[in-house]
Write a structure and sequence with these properties.
- The protein is an alpha/beta fold and 403 residues long.
- It is 34% helix and 17% strand.
- The strands form four sheets. The protein has a six-stranded parallel β-sheet, with helices on both faces. Strands 11-10-9-15-16-17 form a six-stranded parallel β-sheet, with helices on both faces.
- Helix 7 runs parallel beside helix 13 and helix 10 packs parallel to helix 11.
- The longest helix is centred in the first third of the chain and has 15 residues.
- The chain is globular and about 60 Å long.
- The mean pLDDT is 96.
- It binds adenosine-5'-triphosphate, 3-phosphoglyceric acid and magnesium ion (MG).
Length: 403
């Protein structure tokens, strides 16, 4: 990278603002970190900063905040506790994102200490109104946060496809002092090597639940990948586009037209599930059955079925490069984890292929299911990897100062 890196910055005695991506899977009540991969991945840069005498002031988002009531379960407090265990030293936590309490906490920091600031997306809701100060990159917010430190390190690869105040906003307000961290460097190098000139056949697997976010990616991927497998929650908007019944499955109605256009352009490049495990409620203990095609009213597809698994394996068996984002089903519930497990296990057997899995939940899935070790690279970025794959600039990286 021709970008400034953390090794180029003066750190000793400095207030080092750091953007990390601690958007980790967390329990519904917000008290337990379910997967710490993204925290572990940021440790080398955090350690480097504190070992060189910097005061590490960490910023991250967690989940999405659209109303006041979303806040308590999306506090970063539990993340601070996990980080403290991993660093084996105290991590201070300040439960606000602006004002005197935050400023005092920063001013009290000693060299080599670590402070985690509350979820940056608390700024998205003020006095009950959805104002999107963080997610909308409010210029005043980026300027304010930048004023709190001496230098800035962005190690949040998973957030690099976003143009938010805590990544792009702070960086643009600290010209010449905004550097990339080690994780950012490592991810870009790895993805660049694997996908700029991919070994073919190149197969992308897309699943998960962020349909409206990621469906646009597929259009661009059609020009890059040889096949695109679509499973998980992403599949059923495509079912709707094909006139297949979807029952109560996850469907983004206002994206059905987009899905239709993609299918028209795709020819036989896109591979959809043939059968699904359907349930009568969103619950591990729901009644379930496997059905081909149509999903009747009163039922929802929560995993791909055995025929889909076979079909997907058939497409994957000759692949030389595979990039996977988004689980094939609701893997957090054991009765709907099989599709994700089978696809993951099969990727592990592809010894001649480069296999990359990206994303907060996808990474948690392959780790939980015990297949992570057989894959070539576990990326912290889901949406970020996909955007990179599309060949688009990542705003979080573009904003980092040039050397
Ligand atoms: N059929 C389905 N119906 C509803 N939800 C689903 C279905 N299949 C998968 N999911 C959900 O998708 C979620 C993960 O999707 P997501 O797009 O967030 O992936 P990710 O790997 O975390 O990527 P990113 O890092 O971009 O968030 C999981 O919580 C999973 O339960
Ligand atoms: O998990 C991710 O992809 C990143 O942390 C970004 O989160 P977002 O999709 O809520 O912006
Ligand atoms: Mg996710």
């Amino acid at each position: 990278m021709a970008k400034l890196t953390v090794e180029d910055l003066p750190l000793s005695g400095k207030k080092v603002l750091m953007r990390v991506d601690f958007n980790v899977p967390i329990s519904d009540d917000g008290t337990k970190v379910e997967d710490d991969n993204r925290i572990v991945a940021a440790l080398p840069t955090i350690k480097y900063v504190i070992e060189h005498g910097g005061k590490a002031i960490l910023f991250s988002h967690l989940g999405r905040i659209k109303k006041e009531e979303d806040k308590p379960a999306k506090s970063l407090k539990a993340v601070a506790e996990r980080l403290s265990e991993l660093l084996d030293k105290p991590v201070k936590f300040v439960p606000v994102t602006e004002g005197k309490e935050l400023e005092d906490a920063i001013n009290e920091l000693k060299d080599g200490e670590v402070l985690l600031v509350q979820n940056t997306r608390y700024e998205d809701v003020k006095d009950g109104e959805y104002v999107k100060r963080e997610s909308g990159n409010d210029p005043e917010l980026g300027k304010y946060w930048a004023s709190l430190g001496d230098v800035y390190v962005n190690d949040a690869f998973g957030t690099a496809h976003r143009k938010h105040a805590s990544n792009v906003g702070i960086a643009t307000n600290m010209p010449g002092k905004a550097a990339a961290g080690f994780l950012m460097e490592k991810e870009i190098k790895f993805l660049g090597d694997a996908v700029d000139n991919p070994q073919r056949p190149f197969v992308a697997i897309l699943g998960g639940a962020k349909v409206s976010d990621k469906i646009g990616v597929i259009d661009n991927l059609l020009d890059k990948a040889d096949k695109i497998i679509i499973g998980g929650g992403m599949a059923y908007t495509f079912y709707a586009a094909k006139g297949i019944k979807t029952g109560d499955s996850l469907v983004e109605k206002d994206k059905i037209d987009v899905a239709k256009k993609i299918l028209d352009k795709a020819g036989d490049k896109i591979v959809l599930p043939i059968d699904n495990v359907v349930a009568d409620k969103f619950d591990n203990d729901a009644n379930t059955k496997v059905v081909e095609g149509d999903v009747d009213d009163g039922w929802m597809a929560l995993d791909i079925g055995p025929k889909s698994v076979e079909e997907f394996k058939n497409v994957l068996k000759d692949a030389k490069t595979v990039v996977w984002n988004g689980p094939m089903g609701v893997f957090e519930k054991p009765n709907f984890a099989k599709g994700t497990l089978e696809v993951g296990k099969f990727l592990g057997t592809l010894n001649d292929a480069t296999t990359i899995v990206g994303g907060g939940d996808s990474t948690a899935a392959v780790k939980q299911l015990g297949v992570a070790d057989q894959l070539t690279h576990i990326s912290t970025g889901g949406g970020a990897s996909l955007t990179y794959l599309e060949g688009k600039a990542l705003p979080g990286i573009a904003a980092i100062s040039e050397k």
